[in-house]
Amino acid sequence: MTSTAVKVLLDSTYLLPTFGIEVEGLTSRHIAELREAHVKGKVRFYCLSTVWVEVIGKVCRERERLRIDIKDVLRRAVDSLLKSEFYEWITPDAEAVKLAFELRTLGHRDNIDNLLYATSIEKSMIFLSMDKEFKRFLSKSGYKTENFLGHEELLKTVKTL
User: In Å, what is the CA distance from 88 to each residue of 10, 44, 47, 133, 137?
Assistant: First the structure.
């Protein structure tokens, strides 16, 4: 990785394709371009340990909806996420937790998103998320959103690096 690599904290949505779950608005081309940006050292992808709460729920709901056995996919996906070194796993620090509490108090009920955003602020990272409603909430509440990007915005940004 180069020292100019952009640090990007991923919303759980970006981990779902690893489990074979399609995400609306996230194409295989987008995934390939994100991977290429990482391989070229333009970005470093970070995941917050708390996103497992969301990922487990989403994967299990999808399994039930499709009525499929995911044991093999599950084993490969979890190993890929945790052992491949493609993602760096981090935990929120005390300041991020305090900011997440503040966001919850203001009315944003998704604690995982609150922790993700707060950690991205505290660690000076891009928060990669497609959650436009959360971004509007933050903006309306007076929080900075310059670091809150969707994948297409991020890909445009890293093409110039």
Answer: 10, 8, 6, 27, 28
Both tokens assigned to 144:
């900075």
In this prediction the pTM is: 0.94
Range of the domain at 118: 6-159
Q: What is the CATH number of the domain that holds 122?
A: 3.40.50.1010
Nearest of 125, 126, 121, 113 to residue 95 by alpha carbon: 121
**Residue 53, SS3 per DSSP:** helix
Strand 6-10 versus strand 148-149 pairing type = unpaired
State pLDDT tens for residues 97-155.
Answer: 999 999 999 999 999 999 999 999 999 999 999 999 999 999 999 999 999 999 999 99
